[in-house]
Design brief:
single chain; 165 residues; alpha/beta; Rossmann fold; 7-stranded mixed sheet; 5 helices
Length: 165
């Protein structure tokens, strides 16, 4: 719910490493996002997302014509540049998040907003963002199943350079 609060009405979303897909499904159900892309690197987690989508459609939580794409691939590679307004990368280690952001700098900078939720090495993520010239819009801590989770909302600045971590 804490991450959902950072998505504004009308913003499309890509959930990188979506697993079950609960966040994008919630945003679609509430009519906040017009469409969502759920990605994962492995077929198993993507299948979990597909099952969640089918259950949500069957329950009438999501209209049958709502666009939900499920895509297999690593990081941002399944996305076209600027294809969505907001990108969520949650539940991964800080090193993985930094690697995803560094993999294709031009594509990475084409998205307007990121919501990052590193499970480890939050300081590494914050350091990379600062070194790459990104703007941190907000930072908060939420609790998930008794575990504290950092949430970073940020945006790449036009003309910013990328740094190594």
């Amino acid at each position: 719910m804490a991450m959902a609060g950072y998505i504004s009405a009308g913003e499309s979303i890509a959930d990188i490493g979506a697993d079950h897909g609960y966040l994008p499904l919630y945003l679609l159900w509430k009519g906040i996002s017009p469409f969502a892309i759920l990605t994962d690197t492995q077929p198993g987690p993507l299948e979990k997302a597909r099952i969640s989508v089918e259950k949500a459609r069957s329950a009438g939580l999501i209209k049958p014509d709502t666009r939900i794409d499920l895509r297999l691939g690593d990081g941002l590679s399944p996305l076209a540049g600027a294809e969505v307004s907001a990108v969520v990368i949650a539940g991964m280690g800080g090193e993985s998040i930094c690697s995803i952001l560094m993999a294709d700098p031009n594509k990475t900078r084409s998205f307007l907003k990121y919501i990052l939720q590193p499970r480890t090495k939050t300081d590494m993520v914050l350091g990379w963002l600062a070194g790459a010239g990104w703007s941190t819009l907000d930072r908060t801590v939420a609790e998930e199943n008794g575990r504290k989770c950092d949430i970073i909302v940020c945006t790449p600045l036009v003309g910013a350079t990328d740094s190594e971590f």
